[in-house]
Design goal:
The chain has ten helices and five strands, in the order βααβααβααβαβααα. α3 runs antiparallel to α6 and α5 crosses α6. 40% of the residues are buried. The protein has a single domain, classed as Rossmann fold (3-Layer(aba) Sandwich), CATH 3.40.50. The chain is mainly alpha-helical and 162 residues long. Strands 1-4-5 form a three-stranded parallel sheet. A two-stranded parallel ribbon has the order 2-3.
Amino acid sequence: MIIVSNTSPITNLAAIGRLNLLQDLYDTILIPEAVNLELTSGGDEIPGSTEVKTLSWIQIQSVSNPNLALSLRQELDAGESEAIALAVELQADLLLLHKPLGYQVASRFGLKIKGVLWVLIFMVKYRGLIPSVKPLLDELIGTADFWITPGLYHRILQLAGE
């Protein structure tokens, strides 16, 4: 499987010490250069920056069509633009994103898109690799400043069977 990630799924999971969930699901996560730069340009203070530099299962791959990424910059930031462009180029099986606008733009290319909340639900409901979503969801909100509406919060717990 080819999995491409934007910055936020990595930073959010790293902030709560659960970046390993991505490795548990997928052998390799590809990130474009712009995502790598977003993660590492601020030093080790950004959650996931150390992991991106040291974990072999997170691999950096350059976008071979910079024109597509550049055109996406009219709507998105550099990381999202390159993540979408890389996913299109590689015909990725999955693109990990967080922001709704990124979802909208990526869906125009027919990409399969999921976010951190889906990863948590999948790990509980379908894989049984974590016992509960609620503690991790609460930690995302409290530690990673992850924003979620109360309605979606309750829907996620419902989907996870909690």
